[in-house]
Each structure stands twice: as structure tokens, then as C-alpha cells.
UniProtKB/TrEMBL annotation:
BP GO annotations: chromatin organization
UniProt GO molecular function: chromatin DNA binding; zinc ion binding
Coiled-coil spans in chain: none
Keyword Transport: no
Occurrences of domain Polycomb protein VEFS-Box (ranges): 501-621
Family: Belongs to the VEFS (VRN2-EMF2-FIS2-SU(Z)12) family.
Domain DUF7651: 77-281
Organismal lineage: Eukaryota, Viridiplantae, Streptophyta, Embryophyta, Tracheophyta
Protein name as annotated: Polycomb group protein EMBRYONIC FLOWER 2
Length: 639
């Protein structure tokens, strides 16, 4: 089928890309007995149109294996699909099941979702837990408000509970303080990290626990939970006397139960009602509402697992009169085999990643189907009109001006220059000297009778007047051995006459970028400063420009300033420089980002912007995250 990888496909003589060994049972073809031999040949040729786009997607898939375009786990529809499979557990107490203990003062009762801390537990006499959630029940659910008679928690899905030991290590703890009217917490819920909101969690109490692992094992055999129904059960808990010691530390709220044997009343048993339902039970499709009335209960879980995530793909061809069908599992794409998590996610994936086909999405109680057809109009060239031979069209080419070509031509012109010796007293010598001086002026040097600014290191040349020409004519200056061509933009000290040098010393020269006075040594230096940029001045101008923005936060301005300064100093010019620039930027400012989470958040948003514009790939973003995580763990170079 088109969805199989290229390496394992065997093309048949009919033009189908199916593999004989693995897809004969899933790939079928409608009856073509009514077609003639010519029509059957035309039908196979029509079906062969699938080959070209499928081969293209296989090439892209192999490239994505080495360098993925994005991280699959970060896709929004995959995240939503995982969140909808989480389980909401509700805990409540029934007066009918606890008639024997109604004479006891058991309320208020605190329901805690906590994780054991073995490192703080000492034998069987002490048990320590780290709190995640805290609720308070003030009465039985038959006689009170729901907010004060029921505690609700959201735990991971069953698959994660079965594979993740940390998620499966949670406990539901029931604590009874026996103080009915004291310090009732508003809305029945206590917020973590605020010890003052938990005044009753201290001193003598009764407590018991229900492991989440025990709850998950019971839910695995519950068929109604997979159908979106609520699963209900009753658990008996033995409440033991204890002394509760709370220790509220920042982001590490811990409670410790110490065995207390002096209580004469002893332990008692409490019947707790537990109900579980999937978070996304209200967002079920008609396919999920299928009735399993005629299926035996023993075969029901197996049939439900087979139907879950199955999608029929109908590949239409020959003017949509014929079709071949393939079935995928776990909402998998037939072209790149990516599991999309849900039918909605599969729709988003096909439209975004495989847009060379047309799709029709159908959902009923019987099946989830996708009708696929080839877009024939996308294979036409965008540059050639219909019916026009591309060889007869005019070809336009535009090339950018290259500086190297000009330098090469000037070097050739320089090689053609012939030296000409003149009499030192002749007027031609004066004109030659004047021409040489003006050549220096053309190369970017200039002078005036006032302050002068120049884009080079700012060497200056005294303008030649008639009086100066007469002075030069009477001197014993020898002609230069080589005429200076090219973009030298400097005034050599050897060529400067002492009298001209004395005249230059009377003038003040200023830097073209910094506007600061320059020393004479800087004026006569051989250093080419045409592209020189003062970093302090550039940073000042960048900050002044960013201060004009009124709809940008302070942290966003700081990130923009740091990035602009880094790009300017490191000469980040091309799109291909962006990946290593982001990694180097993360290493340079990683410590500052760790100390300021708001700056780190702005930097992550900026990388997402670069990723949206295809300037940054998923691998580089992951490397940057590892670098920042290394700084957070006090390891500046995780590689």
C-alpha cells in the first residue's frame, strides 16, 4: 500500500504499491468484471498516480528520521489526546455505609493526594508523605453541598500508571481530626504552600491510605471506563490512631504520621466511595458511542481494543469510480506511520503534512473513514503556461553585483600602468604630484580648512591650490615608484611630505561613527576602519530604539537587545548561522536565564518564532534546552 516504507514495498504488475505478504488482507479492490481490458488498463494507470507523491513523502520521511522537522510530543493535538485519557477520581463518604461510626466525631475529614517519602520514614512507626493536593470533607454526601462532601483528583491515564513507577506511587490518604466545627476551610479545598490554611493537620488524628496502584489495577478490568462511563467502587480503610506532624517547606510540603498507641478507642473502619471517569468522556465521537449489546462480556475488552484507533482509508481512482481500502491502527498515518492520537489529530496531520491528496473525513458508529484522491493539478509547472514549450520561453537571469570582479579588473588595469620619468623642474612633475594626490582623494581621503569627518580611518589630504602647486614645482620631490590603485583608503606616512604633515597637524579630525576627536597617529595609521563599529555606541542606539516601543515588556526588550548585540558582534548573517548562534547564545547567557525565569521564557518564545519561520529545527531547540538545563543543574556544558 502507499503507506508502506519504500524499502519493503514490492510493486505489482498492476501498478499497485502494495506488498503481497503483509497487505493482501487489508487492501482490496472493487469488482472490475464489468470493465473492458482497455478500461482496466486505464484504471491501473489512474491508480499509479499515487506512486509519485508517495515516493516523495517516503524521501521526506527518511530525511525527517535524521533531522526531524518538529518534536512529535509537542504537537497540540497529541497533547490534548493524552490529557483526555487522564482519569478523574472522586472521593466521598456515604452515611448508609458508615452507620456504625456515625456516633464518632470524625468530621472534618481531610483527603490528601500524596507521594511516600521512604527516606524520612523510620520503620513501621513513622510514615512521611509529600503533599500534592488537599481537600476537606465536612459531612456525608447525602446531606451536604458537593463542594464540601466530595474531593476530586486527576491522575495519569492507565497506560502511564502501568509503565511509570513514579506516577503509580501516589496514595489517597484519609485523615480524621475529630474536630467538627473548628477552622472550616472555604470551598473545601486547601491550597498548598500555605501552612496557615491547614490548621487542623497537626496533633492527634486517625488516618488510612488507598494506593493508586490498587485503584489502577481495578480500573484496568473495568470495561465501562473505556466506554466513557463512570466506574464506581467502595473501599474499606482501616483508620489508625496517630500523631500528625506537618512540615511546610517551600515547594516541599511534607506530613509525617507517628504511631500513637495511647488512644483507648483503637482503630475503626471507614467505607469510602470511589468513582472514576475519563477527563474527555464528554467529548466522545459517534464512533465511540457504538453499542456492544450482542458481544459477549468475555470478548468485549478484546473487541474494544481492536476497534480503538482503527481508521479506514479508501484510495479512490479512475474518476472516483473505483477504490482500494486500507485499515490503520492507533490513528496512524498511512504515508509516514505517525500515530496522531485521535481522529482530529489525524485530520490535522494529513492536511498539514500530506497536502498532495484530497481528503474526505467521515465518522459514524460503524467506522472512521478517510476518502483519499490525488490532486492532479498540483503536478503542473508553475513557471510554464499550458501548451507552451518551456524551451521557447525567455529565460531571465539577474545576478548581484560582485565586489571581487571589480577588484580583479582594477588589478588588471594596475598591471597595465607604465612608469614615466620626468624632469624634476618641469611643470609636468607638479601635475603628476597633483594627480597622485587627487587619486588619494578618490580613494576616500579628503581635507578641508575646518573639522573633517571621513568613513575610513579618516586619513586626510591637503587640497592643492595654485600657490601650493608652485611650491611643489620648486621642490625636489621624486615621483612615486608605484601608483596606488584600489580601495586603499589610507594615507601612507612615507608618502606624506613634512610640510603637508605640518599642515595636517593644524586640523582636527573626527571619527565618522563615534564623532570623537582622533589623534594624528590614528589618522596616519594603516588600519582600515571603514567597517569599524563601536560596540558601546551601537548598544546605546539599540537600547534607545527599543525604549520607543510601548507594547513590549521589559524582559522582551532585554532579550531583543541581547540578541541584537550578539548577532552584531558574531556577524550572524545567513539563515544557516541561526542554529549555532542559538546554541552559543544559550551558553553565553545561560546563567542569567537561570536566575531570571522571565528572561528564559522570552528566550524560549523567541526560539519558537525562529522555528515557525523555518530558521531553527527541533534538534537545535532540544540542544538549547539541554544547555539551559545544564546551567540549572550547575553543569554549564551538558555535552
Amino acid at each position: 500500500m502507499p503507506g508502506l516504507p519504500l524499502a519493503v514495498r514490492e510493486t505489482t504488475n498492476l501498478g499497485c504499491s502494495c506488498s503481497h505478504s503483509s497487505t493482501d488482507q487489508m487492501c482490496r479492490q472493487q469488482s472490475r468484471s464489468h470493465l473492458t481490458a482497455e478500461e482496466q488498463l486505464a484504471a491501473e494507470e489512474s491508480f499509479s498516480l499515487y506512486c509519485k507523491p508517495v515516493e516523495l513523502y517516503n524521501i521526506l520521511q527518511r530525511r525527517a528520521t535524521r533531522n526531524p522537522y518538529f518534536l512529535q510530543r509537542c504537537l497540540l493535538y497529541k497533547t490534548h489526546a493524552k490529557l483526555k485519557k487522564r482519569i478523574q477520581v472522586s472521593v466521598s463518604l456515604s452515611s448508609n455505609l458508615n452507620e456504625a461510626i456515625q456516633s464518632r466525631a470524625i468530621f472534618p475529614i481531610y483527603v490528601l493526594l500524596a507521594r511516600p517519602l521512604p527516606e524520612f520514614s523510620v520503620g513501621e512507626q513513622t510514615a512521611s508523605y509529600r503533599l500534592n493536593r488537599v481537600y476537606m470533607l465536612t459531612s456525608f454526601f447525602e446531606i451536604g453541598d458537593k463542594d464540601r462532601t466530595e474531593a476530586s483528583f486527576v491522575i495519569p491515564d492507565l497506560q502511564r500508571l502501568a509503565t511509570d513507577s513514579r506516577a503509580n506511587n501516589l496514595h489517597i490518604i484519609i485523615v480524621s481530626t475529630g474536630e467538627r466545627e473548628e477552622n472550616i476551610i472555604e470551598n473545601g479545598k486547601a491550597e498548598l504552600g500555605q501552612p496557615s490554611s491547614l490548621p487542623n493537620l497537626e496533633g492527634k488524628c486517625y488516618w488510612g491510605s488507598i494506593p493508586i496502584s490498587l485503584l489502577s489495577s481495578s480500573l484496568e478490568n473495568c470495561v465501562t471506563l473505556s466506554l466513557g462511563h463512570k466506574a464506581e467502587m467502595v473501599s474499606a480503610i482501616s483508620m489508625h490512631p496517630s500523631y500528625l506532624e506537618p512540615k511546610f517547606i517551600e515547594q516541599n510540603n511534607r506530613v509525617t504520621f507517628h504511631a500513637h498507641k495511647e488512644d483507648a478507642s483503637g482503630p475503626f473502619h471507614l467505607q469510602v466511595n470511589l468513582s472514576a471517569v475519563e477527563v474527555g468522556a464528554n467529548e466522545r465521537t459517534p464512533y465511540d458511542s457504538y453499542s456492544y449489546e450482542n458481544i459477549p462480556a468475555s470478548s468485549l475488552p478484546h473487541i474494544m481494543r481492536l476497534r480503538a484507533g482503527n481508521v479506514l482509508f479508501n484510495y479512490r481512482y479512475y474518476n472516483n469510480t473505483l477504490q482500494r481500502t486500507e485499515v490503520t491502527e492507533d490513528f496512524a498515518c498511512p504515508f509516514c506511520l505517525v500515530q496522531c492520537g485521535s481522529f482530529k489529530g489525524l485530520k490535522c496531520h494529513l492536511v498539514a503534512c500530506h497536502d498532495l491528496f484530497k481528503y474526505e473525513f467521515l465518522v459514524t458508529e460503524e467506522y472512521q473513514a478517510v476518502n483519499v484522491s490525488v490532486k492532479t493539478d498540483v503536478w503542473r509547472s508553475e513557471l510554464v503556461a499550458e501548451g507552451v514549450d518551456p524551451r521557447l520561453q525567455t529565460f531571465f537571469y539577474c545576478s548581484r553585483y560582485r565586489r571581487q570582479r571589480r577588484l580583479g579588473s582594477m588589478n588588471k588595469r594596475k598591471s597595465r600602468v607604465h612608469l614615466h620619468a620626468m624632469d624634476s623642474n618641469s611643470p609636468d612633475e607638479t601635475l603628476a604630484c597633483m594627480d597622485g594626490d587627487f587619486l588619494q582623494k578618490d580613494n576616500g581621503t579628503c581635507s578641508s580648512h575646518g573639522p573633517v569627518a571621513n568613513s575610513h580611518s579618516l586619513a586626510a589630504q591637503l587640497s592643492v591650490t595654485n600657490d601650493t602647486a608652485q611650491t611643489l614645482a620648486g621642490s625636489n620631490l621624486t615621483p612615486p615608484t608605484v601608483l596606488q590603485f584600489g580601495k586603499t583608503r589610507k594615507l601612507s606616512v612615507e608618502r606624506a611630505d613634512p610640510r603637508n604633515r605640518a599642515l595636517l597637524q593644524k586640523r582636527q579630525f573626527f571619527h565618522s561613527h563615534r564623532a570623537q576627536p582622533m589623534a594624528l597617529e590614528q589618522v596616519f595609521s594603516d588600519r582600515d576602519s571603514e567597517d569599524e563599529v563601536d560596540d558601546d555606541i551601537a548598544d546605546f542606539e539599540d537600547r534607545r530604539m527599543l525604549d520607543d516601543f510601548v507594547d513590549v515588556t521589559k524582559d522582551e526588550k532585554q532579550i531583543m537587545h541581547l540578541w541584537n548585540s550578539f548577532v552584531r558582534k558574531q556577524r550572524v548573517l545567513a539563515d544557516g548561522h541561526i542554529p549555532w548562534a542559538c546554541e552559543a547564545f544559550s551558553r553565553l547567557h545561560g546563567k542569567d536565564f537561570v536566575r531570571a525565569p522571565s528572561l528564559l521564557w522570552c528566550w524560549r518564545l523567541f526560539m519558537i518564532k525562529l522555528w515557525n519561520h523555518s530558521l531553527l529545527d527541533a534538534r537545535t531547540m532540544n540542544n538549547c534546552s539541554l544547555i539551559l538545563q545544564g546551567f540549572k543543574n550547575e553543569n554549564p556544558d551538558p555535552k
